[in-house]
């Protein structure tokens, strides 16, 4: 028995197992090593996937370049963007093609120089997203592609037509006609070959054209130009035209800005009393201004179809081209500020309402039977700041309260007023029997009277 006890005691004293602390330390070290190994594996897989994606992108770019090089019709190689999916990854192939003339710089249609079209510079950019939530990656590749034969035969020329939208992008699908100039063809002859509609870059071409002067005209449904075409300079038109001169072994360019019309609904509105109702004259003109060019006048109540400039139009009541008084910015001012004639388009139904600033005035008719009124522009009072009008304009108001007080709206300027009774209206022409007296006007901000003249002043003291 004593021997057995001794053996058990010795066994307990020589126990060589692991403590709990040692186990925890070992597990921690193992976890750190495993995490590092896992991170390395993930990074290796990510790099391998990224490398694979880049190889695919390079292959797609190379395939696109090869397709451009082998295209029998170099005019068909245009800007385009094509998405494609490989191994679960979506790649976007963007092709940009620019003609380069023998003289000048590259552009979409090749109209940057005067020499013949020499070759095309084709640029491919392939983009994709690296993994879920990853950053966008891209590769690019460029090449010069020359036509297999000369674009135009010797001693003949090329007409390049370039059509851009308001944003600067090419206008595709525009119909183009080219014919000898009617008044002075200078050797030009009819073009018998078919002229294609403009491509994705807004370009089309007439090849092997005999030297001479040619008229180039555009047409496309619901489209209008910006008024800069030589054949319709200063007037927006749905069928713009210009004249080009073709010389031997050279290119002639016809450039247009042409886009889908923007429909505007012109209105008159007093910016200082926008909710006050007033009577409008029988003729209610509105002029639209873009930079230094005026278009119109258009009539309130009709739809004005205009070029969709991205920075919009200024809106002016009346016709400032013949009456500067209508334009608030034309008034001289020492202490005041003219009402800004800009009102950004506000969507109303399917059209945009553009409001031209006018002045509302209250007028007491002169005769007890009067029901009509005329306001005629007149010479401004000296040193008033009113720039005046080059031509005289008369605004006619009918249907006014008989012998009563009327609230009317007029463009800015200086007027003489007469009231009377309507005796006849034929084809819109109003005949009025005028009273002997002079209507009286209620003075208010922007409205002043002097020597039977009424001045409607856009300037306001800040």
Automatic annotation (TrEMBL):
Keywords: Membrane, Transmembrane, Transmembrane helix
Start-end of Low complexity biased regions: 439-451
Biased composition (Polar residues): 221-234
Name of this chain's protein: Type II secretion system protein
Domain of life: Bacteria
Pfam (any one): N_methyl
Chain segments carrying region Disordered: 221-241, 439-462
Transmembrane annotation, as ranges: 20-48
């Amino acid at each position: 028995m004593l021997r057995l006890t001794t053996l058990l005691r010795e066994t307990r004293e020589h126990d060589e197992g692991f403590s709990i602390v040692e186990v925890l330390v070992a597990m921690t070290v193992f976890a750190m090593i495993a995490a590092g190994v896992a991170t390395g594996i993930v990074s290796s897989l990510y790099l391998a996937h990224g490398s694979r994606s880049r190889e695919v992108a390079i292959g797609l770019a190379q395939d696109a370049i090869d397709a451009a090089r082998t295209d029998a019709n170099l005019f068909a190689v245009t800007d385009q963007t094509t998405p494609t999916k490989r191994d679960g990854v979506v790649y976007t192939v963007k092709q940009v093609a620019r003609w380069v003339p023998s003289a000048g710089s590259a552009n979409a249609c090749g109209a940057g120089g005067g020499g013949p079209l020499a070759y095309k510079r084709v640029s491919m950019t392939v983009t994709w997203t690296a993994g879920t939530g990853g950053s966008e990656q891209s590769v690019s590749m460029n090449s010069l592609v020359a036509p297999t034969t000369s674009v135009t035969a010797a001693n003949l020329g090329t007409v390049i037509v370039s059509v851009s939208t308001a944003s600067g992008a090419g206008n595709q699908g525009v119909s183009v006609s080219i014919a000898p100039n009617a008044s002075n063809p200078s050797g030009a002859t009819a073009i018998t070959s078919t002229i294609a509609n403009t491509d994705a870059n807004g370009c089309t071409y007439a090849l092997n054209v005999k030297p001479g002067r040619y008229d180039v005209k555009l047409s496309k449904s619901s489209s209008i130009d910006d008024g800069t075409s030589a054949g319709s300079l200063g007037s927006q038109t749905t069928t713009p035209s210009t004249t080009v001169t073709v010389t031997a072994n050279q290119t002639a360019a016809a450039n247009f800005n042409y886009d889908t019309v923007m429909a505007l609904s012109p209105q008159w509105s007093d910016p200082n009393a926008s909710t006050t109702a007033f009577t409008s004259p029988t003729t209610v003109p509105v002029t639209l201004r873009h930079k230094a060019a005026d278009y119109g006048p258009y009539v309130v109540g009709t739809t004005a179809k205009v070029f969709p400039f991205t920075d919009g139009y200024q809106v002016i009541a009346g016709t400032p081209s013949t009456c500067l008084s209508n334009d608030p910015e034309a008034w001289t001012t020492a202490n005041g500020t003219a009402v800004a004639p800009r009102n950004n388009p506000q969507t109303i139904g399917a059209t945009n309402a553009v409001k031209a600033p006018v002045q509302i005035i209250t007028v007491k008719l002169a005769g007890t039977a009067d029901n009509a009124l005329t306001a005629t522009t007149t010479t401004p009072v000296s040193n008033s700041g009113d720039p005046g009008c080059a031509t005289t304009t008369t605004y006619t108001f009918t249907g006014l309260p008989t012998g009563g007080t009327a609230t009317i709206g007029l463009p800015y300027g200086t007027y003489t007023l007469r009231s009377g009774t309507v005796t006849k209206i034929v084809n819109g022409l109003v005949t009025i029997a005028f009273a002997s007296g002079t209507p009286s006007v209620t003075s208010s901000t922007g409205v002043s009277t002097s020597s039977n003249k009424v001045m409607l002043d856009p300037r306001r003291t800040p």
